[in-house]
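Quick look at the format.
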Amino acid sequence: GGAVIPRAFTGDHAVLAQARELWPLFALMLPVGAVVFALDGILLGAGDTRYLALAMVVAALGVFVPVALLALHFDWGVRGVWWGLVALMVARLAALWPRLTGRVWMRIGTL
């Protein structure tokens, strides 16, 4: 899809070249993001929003922001920002998976 999908949005050769370079990062983030978003939905449905908010703040401030600042400092460009997003998804997965496999979020019989 890396050669087809970007062309649906642009014909600009510079943008297409950048998309081709970043495509592996997009592909890497998809399965991790899918699991994270599913866990978000499960925990939201269970009313565990406080934990979700805390996990997002910790992942954003502890992982994404430092990677983004490194990208700025070392001039990694958009590739560095996308690595930051991949790292954010991995950090969120690391925070949400143990919560799901534990029993704290389950509240049987409550509305």
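Next, a different chain entirely:
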Amino acid sequence: VVLFVHNTSRVEGEPYPELLKEKGFRGFPSLAFMDAEGEVIHTQGDRSVDGFNRSFAALDVLAKIDEATDDPAAATKLFLAKLALDKFEFEAAVAARAKLTVVTDEQTLEIEEMLTNLEVQQVIKETGRDRAAAGKKFAAMYADGKIPSGFAARSFFSAIMAHAEQEADADLFEQAMDAMKEALDNDPRYKRFYDQWAKTLEKLRG
């Protein structure tokens, strides 16, 4: 594994002046894993150390397990790796999950978490910029106990808040607000948002 850092500052003599665009990126920082030929094999969304470690481990699994494996346990590991690397659309992931025959309790929990996150991504794709529309679907997921993790949780609860505000549902807004704060680790840097949400809740309460 080799770390390759590309400078996008238009430095004179830069040997790869168009690399960002060539690899399909439009802004920076853009982070990705590439193979030995320089082809992008995974775009890294989660920029935390844990996120990088998960992606690296998943790529290692893909390199070591043959796609046509007849080992049920290996097939489950391969499925988990593909989920971690966003290799599935939601419906395809659900169909692939149904074919697994050997899944541990720990793997079941991991799969359910990633499938929920993937469903959130699918809803966002379908609803585009209409956060309230996404929030309506997320509220139904929330009521069923399907709650995403990580960065997906922020989009999830933010959209539910937009939906709750539109529907003047103060109780749902407060639940989503509290969950959103927890997803943000109650980071004081977001205080202006906390204050704004509190004012919105007060208005909804009348």
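The chain is about 60% helix and 5% strand.

See the schema section for token definitions.
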